[in-house]
Amino acid sequence: MKIYTYLQDGWADWECGYVLAGLRRNLGCEIVIASPDGRPVTSIGGIRTTPEVGFDSVEPSPDAGYLLIGSDDWIEFDCESTRETLTRAFELGCPIGIVCGATVFAARIGLFENRGHTSNGFEFLREHAGDYPGSQHYVSSPSAVSDRNLVTASGLAALTFSREYLKLVKGATPFDEERYFAMYSRERSPTRSS
Fold first, then answer.
1. What is the 8-class DSSP label of residue 19?
2. Burial class (CB in 10 A: 0-12, 13-18, 19+), 37
3. Is 194 inside a domain boundary?
4. For site-directed labelling of 22, which of 33, 41, 67, 176 has its Cα 20 to 30 A away?
5. Phi/psi of residue 40, each to 5°?
6. Residue 192 falls within a domain, yes or no?
7. 193, part of any domain
8. pTM
């Protein structure tokens, strides 16, 4: 499966580390990095990433997944083609993961209308997305929230975000996402004695 990973300047390094590693190494997914214009973007930590495509080139596909990684640039972001792609992918039931600042864009385009979701806080979403469709489905949670084909998380929940998104994508692949989560959350292999 192709996983289109949307990165903007100032993307949060820690929000995608666990999930991209799990998708590529453990599930054999092809990671396709996208940026707004196809040009390199730099993370908060200074990692310069050269994407394969621009946001406009990403197409909705029933055989793909979509990840929107947090950045302050999502707060003012508006792009009709990105809106159309993600809305169609959402309707197709594609696995969609949205974290931190990217939840603002998702709220504004209506992806939360009929789904439980979370973010960096309800007031954060209301401040930047207004009275968005589906605001009544907001879940105040320190961990990621999964509802059907959608996983959302605050910028502090990268590990549970990873676990929940890997559950969506794995299908019949024999991968134990709970063991993966346990290993990283305990900071040692679950088979090692303490």
1. H
2. exposed
3. no
4. 41
5. -60, 145
6. no
7. no
8. 0.94
Domain of residue 96 covers: 2-186
Q: What is the pLDDT along the chain (194 residues), one digit of tens a residue?
A: 999 999 999 999 999 999 999 999 999 999 999 999 999 999 999 999 999 999 999 999 999 999 999 999 999 999 999 999 999 999 999 999 999 999 999 999 999 999 999 999 999 999 999 999 999 999 999 999 999 999 999 999 999 999 999 999 998 888 898 888 998 888 887 665 54
- Residue 104 forms part of a structural domain: yes
Q: What is the CATH number of the domain that holds 26?
A: 3.40.50.880
CB distance 178 to 145 below 8 Å? no
Pairing of strands 64-68, 145-147: unpaired
| CA–CA separation, 114 and 77 (whole Å) | 22
Single-letter residue type at 183: M
